[in-house]
Write a structure and sequence with these properties.
The complex is a heterodimer of chains A (482) and B (255). Chain A has 482 residues and is mainly β. Chain A contains 3 helices and 35 strands. Chain A has 2 domains: 299 residues, 5 Propeller (Tachylectin-2, Chain A); 161 residues, Trefoil (Acidic Fibroblast Growth Factor, subunit A) (Trefoil), CATH 2.80.10. In chain B, 14% of the residues lie in helices and 33% in strands. With 255 residues, chain B is α+β, with helices and mostly antiparallel strands. Chain B has a single domain, classed as Jelly Rolls (Sandwich). Classes of the chains: A mainly beta (482), B alpha+beta (255). Chain B: Keywords: Signal.
């Protein structure tokens, strides 16, 4: 075992990182060991190792400015009533000289350091390890059990067990007499969440803190009881090293760890993490935000939306979004019961140049129709730089492929296309992957309206803008390549 | 078996010419939709292929003075239907938006876009003298093919006009007219275009819906036109609210 593989949890950060203070960063700000992202008075907050934290007004562009005293590593946050409870590890998981760790908690009424209510309570120790036992008390994860109102803390690293203790949700202190329960081994940066009758224990496996060579990955097990046993999809106990993959490393975003969940509404969940290395950002550690999907009762990270040209298919019937233009037939008709000796030739598909002269020049309506991979049905989706964003993503423009014609919301809460993109907010679109893997598509604004509306199929063949309903396929879309 | 079916299908297409409409498979008068009466099956046909024994029953009943409301799902079943205008089209592939918009805004008879006809009123369209019929559909969908065949009129290459009056006890905002038709159609509410259904289209409930509309307190006029080449023409109309639920607090009349 080389030195790197011995480096555990947030410990290495004492050596590697300094407190990051940078200007506005879009999408993937520098951070390590981010806490669960919290929404407080309309702004998003996350805290990392060494104190401080990031603030974002839209969930896409982040600034430094968050304040978390106490230093230490790998904090987590939970909102209880109208207060926020912050937990953090005072130590570093081994490199500080041993495994005698301490987890502390403290309260604040707000996370906004400019608020007159911003004041941290005195931090109190809620869990510790003596340096010799099979546990190192770092990397806290908090869960307020929605079924019971009880407050739980998981903590630990590769040095022994992940443990669970109960805290008092009124005081943030350890429940008197509570004994730690071992719930996993060989992971760190744990977090807990509850969904549909199951408790889920998220853990980070692999090697931390080795830049692009980090093998960090996020796995999960689940239990009907908060106290475990947490089993993976193969029935293996996380106390025996089990865990089902939630998010592994990718080509440029390497070493995801430190899971956190944020629920943005029915059917819209996101997970936060850090990537140990972002090859597009100097292989430094950055914040990651991904859709969180649920498949057969298991959480799995969704994909970061990839720009490209797609058919946009309604889940209502399976028809695709299209321009409301005259259908232009391809040459030829019925091609069966003919001479089989006829030479077989490739027939080119219809191209934009074949049809665009038949389209009006001004605004053109939008409908939903049988998909034939025709030019009036192909949409190119590209991020719009400097247009801001929403939680975890930039805004996109949705353009008929090969043209400047873009999808836009109208003041009547309908959708049309306009001949060219102007950057107007009704031409900017938010695309969220839903927990079932389909997508919600929303305009940034509906002109003359404060309502947040989504692209919805009002009929099989008619799109409109209306309130999103996760229980209805009218509200869901998929992006397919052909 | 599959091969045989394909061959038969191909021969069927060949016999009808070189059109591509899927409607041809559904236009066979001998074919009976599941759940529908088999009354027309195997009947005699005249030289034009019309079923000489067909009648409006069981697809329609004559008008009554009884109060009529949308059915349990909100479909409007009481209509004034004009006998089909001859509009020959061997295939429905011509039913583009532009074609239909031109066709449906062409004047075929006087006061076409304003009249509230009475049962038995007659209009002249070129050499055709056509009669309005006040009927009530036995089904959620108004089976225009059966309307035409029951009156011994052409069933293919035809253009139908339909009118009905919707009475509302209150103003209802943000509703949509939801239409399905075989094949193309256009619908107006109180003289304003509500929804166009273009293409070689099959009848599907809630296929195309209008933008948000307002049903006035009192009388509202729905007017529609349905065109078909070869195929089993029909339509269904209802109003739905913002949640897609039917609007049923209405009465339907002929005047």
């Amino acid at each position: 075992m080389n030195l790197i593989t011995k480096i555990t949890g947030a410990t290495a950060l004492f050596l590697i990182f300094t407190t990051v203070k940078v200007g506005a960063q879009a999408g993937k700000p520098f951070i390590h060991d981010p806490s669960t992202i919290m929404l407080c008075d309309g702004k998003y907050y996350t805290f990392g190792t060494f104190g401080g934290g990031l603030i974002s007004e839209d969930g896409w562009t982040w600034n430094s400015g968050g304040v978390r005293p106490g230093g230490g590593a790998a904090p987590d946050v939970v909102k209880i009533g109208d207060r926020y409870l912050i937990a953090y590890g005072a130590t570093g998981g081994g490199l500080g000289g041993g495994h005698n760790g301490r987890i502390l908690t403290m309260w604040n009424k707000t996370l906004d350091p400019t608020s007159p209510d911003f004041k941290y309570s005195e931090a109190v120790v809620v869990a510790s390890s003596d340096g010799t036992e099979d546990n190192d008390a770092i990397d806290p994860g908090l869960l307020l059990d929605p079924t019971s109102g009880r407050l739980w803390l998981s903590y630990g690293t590769y040095f022994g067990f992940i443990r669970l203790v109960e805290l008092d949700p009124k005081t943030g202190k350890r429940v008197k007499g509570n004994k730690p329960i071992n719930i996993a081994i060989d992971c760190e940066a744990t977090d807990l969440m509850y969904q549909d009758g199951w408790y889920y224990l998220l853990g980070t496996h692999g090697t931390c803190c080795d830049g692009p060579n980090s093998t960090y990955n996020i796995v999960v097990g689940r239990s009907r009881k908060i106290t475990g046993p947490y089993l993976d999809n193969m029935g293996r106990d996380m106390l025996k090293g089990g865990g089902k993959m939630v998010l592994a490393g990718g080509k440029k975003l390497i070493g995801p760890g430190h899971f956190g969940r944020i629920v943005l509404g029915e059917g819209v969940q996101k997970m936060s993490c850090h990537y140990e290395a972002d090859l597009d950002r100097g292989a430094r550690s950055v914040l990651g935000i991904r859709p969180l999907l649920w498949k057969n009762g298991w959480p799995v990270a969704g994909a970061i939306f990839k720009e490209g040209t797609y058919q946009i298919t309604s889940e209502r019937r399976g028809y695709a979004l299209e321009l409301a233009v005259d259908f232009v037939r391809m040459p030829g008709g019925m091609r069966f019961v003919r001479n089989n000796d006829e030479p077989v030739k490739t027939v080119p598909p219809q191209e934009l140049a074949d049809v665009i002269s038949t389209w009006p020049n001004g605004d053109i309506g939008v409908r939903i129709g049988d998909y034939l991979s025709r030019p009036h049905q192909k949409w190119t989706i590209t991020a719009v730089p400097d247009a801001g964003g929403y939680f975890g993503s930039p805004y996109y423009k949705i353009t008929i492929a090969g043209t400047d014609r873009v999808l836009a919301a109208t003041a009547e809460a309908e959708v049309i296309t306009v001949p060219a993109f102007t950057g107007a907010p009704e031409q900017l679109w938010r695309i969220d992957q839903l927990t079932d893997g389909t997508y919600r598509i929303m305009p940034k604004v509906v002109p003359n309206s404060s309502e947040q509306l989504a692209l919805v199929a009002a009929g099989d063949s008619t799109p409109t803008l209306a309130k999103f309903d996760m229980r209805s396929d009218n509200s869901k879309w998929t992006f397919n390549v052909d | 078996m599959k091969k045989k079916l394909l061959l038969l299908t191909a021969l069927y297409f060949s016999a009808l010419g070189n059109a591509q409409s899927q409607n041809r498979l559904t236009s066979n008068p001998a074919k009976v939709a599941p759940g529908q009466p088999a009354a027309q099956s195997g009947k005699a046909a005249d030289k034009a292929g019309r079923d000489t024994t067909a009648s409006l029953a069981p697809y329609f009943t004559q008008a009554t003075a009884l109060t009529n409301t949308p059915d349990a799902e909100g479909f409007i079943r009481r209509w004034l239907l004009l006998e089909p205008i001859n509009k020959p089209n061997r295939s429905n592939t011509v039913f583009t938006d532009s074609y239909l918009r031109d066709t449906f805004t062409t004047t075929y008879f006087p006061n076409q876009f304003t009249t509230i006809p009475k049962n038995g009123d007659k209009v002249k369209v070129d050499s055709q003298e056509l009669t309005w019929h006040a009927l009530e559909s036995s089904n959620f969908n108004v089976k225009l093919f059966r309307f035409a065949s029951g009156l011994k009129k052409n069933t293919y290459g035809v253009l139908f006009w339909a009118v009905t009056i919707v009475n509302s006890p209150r103003e209802v905002k943000n509703v949509r007219m939801a239409a399905g038709s075989n094949s193309g159609s256009m619908w107006w509410l109180n003289g304003r275009e509500a929804v166009l259904l273009s293409g070689d289209r099959r009848m599907v409930m809630d296929d195309c819906v209008s933008p948000r509309l307002t049903i006035n307190k009192g009388k509202n006029i729905i007017r529609g036109a349905v065109i078909n080449g070869p195929g089993m023409s029909d339509f269904c109309i209802r109003f739905i609210d913002e949640k897609g639920m039917p609007v049923k607090d209405l009465t339907i009349s002929y005047k």
